[in-house]
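FORM 12-B: Structure-to-Sequence Request
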């Protein structure tokens, strides 16, 4: 089954399918006709020698420099060569593929003026699994994601590098091995490859999918901690949340309520004298829910940009007209990504507080550091140290990138969104939160073991079993790092989030 790109209906889920599951891509016939119709406008402008930014002029502060007709094609090739200044390690393949499918769909929207051949060439790379090697850093998130896009474009013309089976190969060799030919660039083609929000949008689409999984996982791990700490279910009662009906808050509370339903541990302390639990338990739906709503906001922004015209100049058939504007500016995505980074960082912060409570005997009423041999054994004491290190790092990373800007191109480009920086930071924050949730899950599973013979709810017991399939109960001190990696993989793979999915499907 192929994904048909029409310039209007690409979703975050579709991007994940292409980026990670190798879904094949094709260009919708109506979109291809739209591309060809708009392209005739560009060809007419070039043929008549009109002055058009990036077609018959230089770019940036060189916008007033005229380009002779015989040099129009060379200009497009030069743009890719000169803009390929990325630095740092290579981006993961899924991020590159996400950007590629986003760029093709933005072309299909119909205001780029790029030749249909360029869209088809990018599709061929995707379907042949030829992934350009693109350095991680260098985009300012305005004028488009220029540097990474240039590295992507180099492979189209038989230059640059690709990643194949973990090895770096010359782009031309990779094209030949895949049975593909380099493309010859014409007017607007190189500039169209460069201008656009496709790297920000592609990375953000993957982040949305990953964040949705992390948020489900956070509710599962929270439910396990509710059990281990013998906390009350009352704060998750639907009536409380209906009185303040934020969508994410209501959904989080409902999940935890369902996850803890039928718990023998909860029943064992129904008449205890503990009046209220700490905020990290009692207010968790409000915190988790606010983060979920922030991710929902990012998803809305991303799915607009995935189906948007983000080129410059933009070409319109009515007129016909070529209009210079700023749709390549990444501010909407930059703000959304910064918001998402803050939201995810808070998931890690509140999880660390629950972990602290689980490990602190006078707060948890469990053996100190969750070991029966406190003193001789340190138990899980150091799990919280690792969590604090990651929470602290996230607090630094959560500083918004979108409030920073430095001028470029001789002050012609004097406000940059830094949206790509926001995307990179949000990805790292999410990875840190996955580990923090894994640390909490290890501690919560140990706490549940220490409450035996009391039994948790069926759903939280299922989550406990997911952990125990990979990590045994801690009886005495042992090296924990491999177990932390195993638990983190359970979070990253969605194994714990699937407990929520199974619960939903059973109802």
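FORM 12-B RESPONSE
SEQUENCE OUT:
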């Amino acid at each position: 089954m192929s994904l048909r790109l029409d310039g209007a209906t690409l979703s975050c889920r579709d991007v994940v399918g292409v980026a990670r599951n190798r879904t094949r891509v094709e260009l919708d016939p109506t979109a291809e006709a739209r591309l060809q119709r708009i392209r005739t406008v560009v060809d007419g402008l070039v043929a008549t020698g009109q002055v058009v930014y990036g077609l018959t002029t230089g770019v940036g502060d060189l916008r007033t420099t005229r380009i002779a007709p015989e040099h129009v094609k060379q200009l497009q090739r030069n743009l890719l060569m000169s803009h390929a200044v990325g630095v740092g390690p290579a981006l993961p393949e899924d991020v590159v593929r996400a950007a590629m499918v986003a760029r093709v769909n933005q072309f299909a929207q119909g205001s780029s003026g790029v030749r249909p051949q360029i869209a088809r060439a990018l599709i061929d790379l995707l379907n042949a699994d030829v992934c350009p090697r693109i350095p991680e850093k260098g985009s300012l998130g305005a004028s488009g994601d220029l540097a990474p896009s240039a590295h992507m474009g180099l492979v189209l013309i038989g230059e640059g590098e690709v990643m194949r089976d973990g090895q770096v190969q010359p782009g031309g060799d990779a094209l030949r091995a895949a049975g593909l030919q380099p493309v010859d660039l014409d007017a607007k083609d190189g500039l169209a490859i460069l201008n656009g929000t496709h790297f920000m949008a592609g990375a953000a689409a993957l982040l949305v999918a990953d964040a949705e999984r992390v948020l489900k996982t956070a509710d599962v791990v929270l439910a396990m901690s509710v059990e281990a700490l013998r906390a009350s279910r009352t704060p998750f009662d639907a009536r409380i949340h209906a009185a303040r009906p934020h969508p994410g808050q209501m959904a989080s509370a409902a999940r935890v309520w369902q996850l803890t339903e039928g718990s023998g541990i909860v029943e064992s302390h129904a008449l205890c004298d503990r009046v209220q639990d700490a905020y990290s338990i009692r207010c968790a739906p409000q915190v988790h829910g606010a983060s979920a709503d922030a991710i929902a906001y990012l998803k809305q922004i991303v799915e607009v940009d995935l189906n948007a015209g983000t080129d410059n100049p933009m070409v319109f058939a009515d007129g016909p007209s070529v209009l210079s504007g700023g749709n390549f500016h990444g501010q909407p995505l930059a703000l959304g990504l910064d918001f998402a980074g803050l939201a995810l960082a808070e998931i890690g912060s509140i999880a660390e507080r629950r972990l602290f409570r689980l490990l602190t005997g006078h707060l948890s009423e469990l053996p100190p550091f969750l070991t029966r041999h406190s003193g001789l054994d340190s138990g899980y004491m150091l799990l919280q140290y690792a969590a604090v290190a990651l929470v602290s790092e996230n607090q630094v990373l959560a500083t918004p990138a979108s409030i920073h800007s430095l001028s470029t191109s001789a002050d012609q480009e004097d406000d940059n969104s830094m949206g790509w920086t926001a995307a990179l930071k949000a990805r790292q924050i999410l990875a840190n939160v996955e580990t923090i949730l894994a640390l909490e899950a290890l501690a919560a599973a140990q706490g549940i073991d220490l409450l035996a013979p009391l039994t948790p709810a069926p759903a939280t017991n299922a989550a406990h079993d997911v952990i125990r399939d990979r990590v045994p109960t801690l009886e005495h001190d042992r090296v924990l790092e491999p177990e932390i990696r195993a638990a983190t993989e359970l979070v990253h793979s969605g194994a714990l989030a699937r407990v929520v999915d199974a619960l939903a499907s059973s109802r």
